[in-house]
Design a protein that fits this description.
alpha+beta, Butyryl-Coa Dehydrogenase, subunit A, domain 1, Butyryl-CoA Dehydrogenase, subunit A, domain 2, four-stranded antiparallel beta sheet, 12 helices
Length: 388
């Protein structure tokens, strides 16, 4: 069993670090203050060829695995870009996985190259305000009329919808009282985000101001039949193929964020003099920081194992969910400890750790709650009865 990074993986990490050096903490703090999508960062990553790291080579991607994609996302987040930097490119890395797996050749040729090249941006339209995590109860409808579908409904917490020109949309094509099974009746589309039919309202939120979150009001959106992925009614199954990679990538991003916070906290603890000695000389300061390092190392091993299993074609639902759960908590605790290590200065934006702390809430909450992850582990791994 070899835990060392390969030469190629070391080279990937080094190359990503080189890109991120041009976008330091001051850059992301400014973005956190004024908002606005980080176009220059996005363009730099696209120009270097990293947006297609896990996409097929025949469409311009690198053809690498989720293991390499996780390494990239941890490196981006760990540079100080945090969830703002990671979220700017997150959708390009994993979001179109259902297209890679289930779209036909014509659709892949039409959709994948522009995303890989960074010429197009997409958003992920699944969550709804009145159903939350109960995806099988989605209410947004897509009614077929000849060679098109007409869509009406709402979506919420849709990232990058302010700047996206495409949307991966899950909608109900069979009324829920007519479906053969709970998982049937939803269809998946990848289509133009037509702003004359989709009203996009930005949500003011706690952190990650650089990457917008939105509520969408869809009124009469027309989608050509050729923009439907796979068979009608099978969209939920198609979405599932992208969930494990998403959880693993988010785990890596949370770990990177925690490492950025820990790095700053350790530096501050070694330099800050109180009572004629560095505060880091006190075990009350250094022990919590050491514990956070242990947490982050354990989280790294957990997400790396899940990513390796995915790349080997193995079932990894439990591992991906466990990694997301553990790494989100480890990242949050590292950011919290970093703020506390700085004391009052940790509350000041100039030390950056308060931004990390605010962003660390995101992987704890989304895209699935820690409670539902524990339910999944209890049912699927431990064999306990369903509790909800």
């Amino acid at each position: 069993m070899n835990f060392a990074l390969t030469e190629d993986q070391v080279a990937i990490r080094s190359a990503i670090e080189d890109v991120c050096k041009n976008f330091d903490d001051e850059y992301w703090t400014h973005k956190d203050k004024v908002g606005g999508f980080p176009e220059d960062f996005y363009t730099a990553m696209a120009s270097a060829g990293w947006l297609g790291i896990a996409m097929p080579e025949e469409y311009g991607g690198a053809g690498l695995g989720i293991s390499e994609a996780c390494l990239m996302m941890e490196t981006v987040s760990g540079s100080g870009a945090g969830l703002s930097g990671a979220s700017a490119i997150h959708m390009n890395v994993f979001g179109l996985h259902p297209v890679v797996v289930h779209a036909n050749d014509e659709q892949k040729a039409r959709w994948l190259p522009p995303i890989i090249e960074g010429k197009e941006k997409a958003c992920f339209g699944v969550t709804e305000p009145n159903t939350g995590l109960n995806t099988l109860k989605l209410k947004t409808t897509a009614v077929r009329k000849g060679d098109k579908y007409v869509v009406n409904g709402q979506k919420v917490w849709i990232s990058t919808a302010q700047v996206a020109n495409k949307i991966l949309l899950l909608a109900r094509t069979t009324p829920i009282d007519q479906v053969k099974s709970a998982a049937h009746g939803l269809s998946l589309f990848y289509t133009d985000l037509d702003r004359s039919k989709i009203d996009v309202h930005e949500i003011e939120k706690m952190g990650r101001k650089a990457v917008d979150s939105n509520q969408l009001f869809i009124d009469g959106l027309e989608i050509p039949v050729e923009d439907r992925i796979g068979e009608e009614g099978e969209g939920f199954k198609y979405i599932l193929h992208g969930l494990n990679p998403e959880r693993l990538l988010l785990a890596a991003e949370a770990t990177g964020l925690g490492r950025a916070a820990l790095r700053r906290a350790a530096k501050y603890a070694g330099e800050r003099i109180v009572f004629d000695r560095p505060i880091g000389k006190n075990q009350g300061i250094q022990h919590p920081l050491a514990e956070r390092w242990v947490d982050l190392e354990a989280g790294t091993l957990l997400y790396q194992r899940g990513a390796w299993m995915y790349d080997q074609g193995m079932s990894c639902g439990a591992e991906a969910n466990a990694a997301k759960f553990f790494c989100a908590e480890a990242g949050y605790r590292a950011c919290e400890t970093a703020v506390m290590t700085h004391g009052g200065m940790g509350y000041a934006k100039e030390y950056h750790v308060e931004r990390y702390f605010r962003e660390s809430m995101l992987p704890r909450i989304a895209p699935v709650s820690p409670q539902l992850i524990l339910c999944f582990i209890a049912e699927r791994v431990l064999g306990l009865p369903k509790s909800y």
